[in-house]
Amino acid sequence: MYDLKENDVIYNNKLQIVKYLVEGEQAKIYLGYIKEINSNVIVKRYILTSYDYNIAERLIKDSEILRGMKHVNVCKYYDVNYVKQFKVSLTT
Description:
By secondary structure, the chain is of the alpha+beta class. It has a single domain (9-91), classed as Phosphorylase Kinase, domain 1 (2-Layer Sandwich), CATH 3.30.200.20. It has one helix and six strands. It has one helix at residues 53-67, and strands at 9-10, 15-23, 27-34, 39-47, 79-82, 87-91. It has a six-stranded antiparallel sheet with strand order 1-2-3-4-6-5, with helices on one face. Strand 5 and strand 6 (87-91) form a beta hairpin. The longest helix is centred in the middle third of the chain and has 15 residues, at 53-67. The two termini are 22 Å apart.
C-alpha cells in the first residue's frame, strides 16, 4: 500500500505533505501545503480495496460538484488524481 509521508511532494511538485492526520473507513487524511497559493490544504486519499470503475467515477463526479460549491460548510476541492491503481486522492 502506498502511504504518503511527511515532506513527500506530489502533484508535479506542487503540493507538499505536512503531516498525516487521521484514517477513516474509506480514506487517509493528510495536511498538505501548496506554495503557489500559500495555503494549507487537506489531501484525502481514498483506500479502494479493489478497482471499481463506478466508484472511481462517482468520486470524481462528486468532487466536480463540490469544487463548484461555495459554502462555509463545504471544503473547496482543488483536484482529483489517480495516484496508482486502487488509489484516488482529493485535495481540498
